[in-house]
Amino acid sequence: xxxxxxxxxxxxxxxxxxxxxxxxxxxxxxxxxxxxxxxxxxxxxxxxxxxxxxxxxxxxxxxxxxxxxxxxxxxxxxxxxxxxxxxxxxxxxxxxxxxxxxxxxxxxxxxxxxxxxxxxxxxxxxxxxxxxxxxxxxxxxxxxxxxxxxxxxxxxxxxxxx
Length: 162
Ligand code: HEM
Fold this sequence. Notes:
Elements: E1 16-20, E2 24-28, E3 31-43, E4 50-58, E5 64-74, E6 80-87, E7 91-100, E8 103-113, E9 122-131, E10 137-145, E11 148-160
Antiparallel strand pairs: 1-3, 1-11, 2-3, 2-11, 3-4, 4-5, 5-6, 6-7, 7-8, 8-9, 9-10, 10-11
Bound molecules: protoporphyrin IX containing FE (HEM).
């Protein structure tokens, strides 16, 4: 195995594959509440960059739904983190934020979308990844759209599967 780049030491707890244990819960004022499953995969090839893939599925039918992939960097010598993200909905995004212990808090720093993206358009995303004391990982996502202020869209916990 390739050795982890020392620049990523503070994020080593994220690496590997995670599967939702309980189905995640989704909602928003404008949509019907829903449940979903998701796998997260964080890997590296020795660069000071983490590669990630997030794949979500319908909780009952297992139909593939939302997918994201991208790259994570830590600004050397700081706790500043940047995510470069592409989503299958036609959204590309940079989220930046801070690493505090084993909690990552991020918010949209730049956002663009394909010209024919579905409406309403997302205007802002904030999310938190947190390693829980029992070793599970938790992700909470808030978003604002053209017609709704920042509200929770997703909450889910994962266990490490490899
Ligand atoms: C709806 C954005 C992740 C499932 C929506 C809507 C937006 C959105 C803008 C429409 C809201 C409205 O009509 O007012 C996002 C963003 C995500 C994300 C930016 C990631 C940061 C996910 C994930 C799932 C999911 C991981 C898991 C399956 C749904 C469902 C709906 C929805 C089921 C309602 C039906 C639909 O519009 O397709 N999302 N979403 N989303 N989202 Fe997400």
